[in-house]
Amino acid sequence: xxxxxxxxxxxxxxxxxNEDSTSNTDIDxxxxxxxxxxxxxxxxxxxxxxxxxQTPTTVKFIWVTCYFGFxxxxxxxxxxxxxxxxxxxxxxxxxxxxxxxxxxILLQMGYFKLSTLGRREHxxxxxxxxxxxxxxxxSNLSLSLVxxxxxxxxxxxVPLFTVLIYRVWxxxxxxxxxxxxxxxxxxxAGMCTAGDxxxxxxxxxxxxxxxxxxxxxTVTTNRIMTGSLAMPSMELLxxxxxxxxxxxxxxAAVSGEIPVFLHAMSExxxxxxxSRTLITVVFIVGNGLLAFVLNIASFQTNKIAGALTITxxxxxxxxxxxxxGILVFADFxxxxxNGVGIFLVLAGCACFSKVELDSKRRAATK
Length: 366
Description:
This protein has 366 residues and is mostly helical. It has helices at residues 2-16, 39-45, 57-80, 88-108, 119-145, 148-155, 158-170, 176-192, 201-226, 233-255, 257-270, 274-305, 307-327, 336-365. The protein has one domain (52-365). 37% of the residues are buried. Keywords: Endoplasmic reticulum, Membrane, Transmembrane, Transmembrane helix.
């Protein structure tokens, strides 16, 4: 009997894939012990209910709130401080560089430990980083081919493609109420961004491809953290960020962003106002730090709340951003279509949350 038990334990250890290297993660001080679980615990969840249905509701709510709050903060920060900064690749390089440096500091402080990865796992991470930068490239290309309003209304369909990916590739189904709640979320977000739609056939194809890539990236992020690899969110960010930073810097050089940025900085120095240059540097560093904490919240929220939830939060953010633009910044006036759109998004998100909470309760009673 003991021999049989030992053999079963050996087989379990083999399936969990070097779990011992992450089982000693010490993050008690941040109350994240149940979130950054070791690989053995994570791998066991993949055979039953999804992770989002096993995570305590309070923990999930806290992380979703953090993600939404940091995301809104970065949006407002960019509008107020970096509104004239037109270098998306350099900005992405900045964000991922700060994420790489920040997670390195957390690693040295002992907040997480690195897993032992094989060649296959390293290849997965390289491909994931390429997917990350390709998604940005497709977004930038789409914006150059279609109007902003059309780009936004296409991007609002990410939740639908996320559901489709889960259904086709992972044979996962959601409650009927979840599917129905996505209708007002997607339609309402489209009404929020209603405007001058113009596009070409090429622009349409590129925009749809970009939406599919965005959904694939979100689902892939979730699967790396909750599937057989079961990588903690901080470790995934630590391993992915340097690769994405190098790739973004390469695209910045190819697209000509670096000379333009250096020229703009030299003009500031030529004015003789050193304070302006220092303020710019402080603003850029602040943007990088805010992006770092947002990336941590984004990855962790994706892990414990699910890929679909984080795409729904993206549509909600768009509606709230529109409301802030009207009420706070007075960027434009609201019309009936925009108002109804905001209401539909809020109502749809409320229904989505209710249905997902009911699904979690049903899973807990099984």
